[in-house]
TrEMBL record:
Higher taxonomy: Bacteria, Bacillati, Bacillota, Bacilli, Bacillales
Role of this protein: Activation of pyruvate formate-lyase under anaerobic conditions by generation of an organic free radical, using S-adenosylmethionine and reduced flavodoxin as cosubstrates to produce 5'-deoxy-adenosine.
InterPro entries assigned to the protein according to its UniProt record, in alphabetical order: Aldolase_TIM (IPR013785), Organic_radical-activating (IPR034457), Organic_radical_activase (IPR012839), PFL1_activating (IPR012838), Radical_activat_CS (IPR001989), rSAM (IPR007197), rSAM_sf (IPR058240)
Species of the source: Paenibacillus turicensis
Keywords tagged on the record: 4Fe-4S, Cytoplasm, Iron, Iron-sulfur, Lyase, Metal-binding, Oxidoreductase, Pyruvate, S-adenosyl-L-methionine
Protein name: Pyruvate formate-lyase-activating enzyme
NCBIfam families per record: PFLA
Length: 247
């Protein structure tokens, strides 16, 4: 029997895709982002094993809310694509039973061709692009960014709908040239329905301390409204440049 390892679930999510959504947080991630606010989802062996039917039984009582709001099911993490076979079958089943909208929240650290079965039953991809500069990305996450950028290009080439999200951290990924280059890359893509800046916050620091880990961004402030607006402006300038090149 196919099982997945989950961290938690949310029945009335409103930020991880359109409408009201059931959000399933999978356990396990290969990145070690310095600002991760779900550090307790990183371990590949923690969490709870569940079957498809157990998850479906959690979704069913709230179907009217999801349907009436234009919402559906979002699978997040951790990193959901590490358990692609389970998520694929879950998406297939919710479509077969209830025709629910499906959203995959991913850091993109996978190969589009390898998880094509999953992407074929995914209506929307929420793709987190953490840093456009590779060396700075390695410092921030512990991994290079080539696979994330390749995933973005794969989604673009295969005409998949995506929202791109970027956590803005003062002094880490707010350099003007980096923001412009990020916008330029986004502008070169097809299928980007929405771009969101997520202001960095410290709400996950206590989880790091509970795990006994040093929090490397201790003392880094959240960006101000003006800093967020500046980032949007620079990224938009880059997007226009990227769109011209695309043409």
């Amino acid at each position: 029997m196919l099982k997945g390892r989950i961290h938690s679930l949310e029945t009335f999510g409103t930020v991880d895709g359109p409408g009201i959504r059931f959000v399933l947080f999978m356990q396990g991630c290969l990145l070690r982002c310095q600002y991760c606010h779900n550090a307790d989802t990183l371990s590949l062996t923690d969490g709870k094993e569940v079957t498809l039917e157990e998850v479906l039984s959690e979704i069913e009582p709230y179907l009217n809310y999801y349907r009436s709001s234009g919402g559906g099911l979002t699978v997040s993490g951790g990193e959901a694509t590490l358990q692609a076979p389970f998520v694929t079958e879950l998406f297939r089943e919710v479509k077969k039973r209830w025709n629910l909208h499906t959203t995959l929240d991913t850091n993109g650290y996978n190969d589009g061709d390898k998880i094509r079965d999953l992407l074929d039953v995914t209506d929307l991809v929420l793709l987190d692009l953490k840093h456009i500069d590779n060396e700075k990305h390695i410092k921030l996450t512990g991994r290079p960014n080539d696979r994330m950028l390749k995933m973005a290009r794969w989604l673009s080439l295969h005409e998949r709908n995506m929202w791109i999200r970027h956590v803005l951290v003062p002094g880490i990924n707010d350099d003007e040239q980096d923001l412009f280059n990020l916008g330029k890359f986004i502008g070169s893509l097809q299928g980007v329905e929405k771009f969101e800046i997520l202001p960095y916050h410290q709400m996950g620091v206590f989880k790091w301390k509970e795990l006994g880990w040093d929090y490397e961004l201790e003392g880094v402030p959240s960006p101000t409204a003006e800093e967020v607006e500046r980032a949007y402006r620079i990224i938009e300038e880059g997007r226009k440049q990227g769109a011209l090149i695309k043409q």
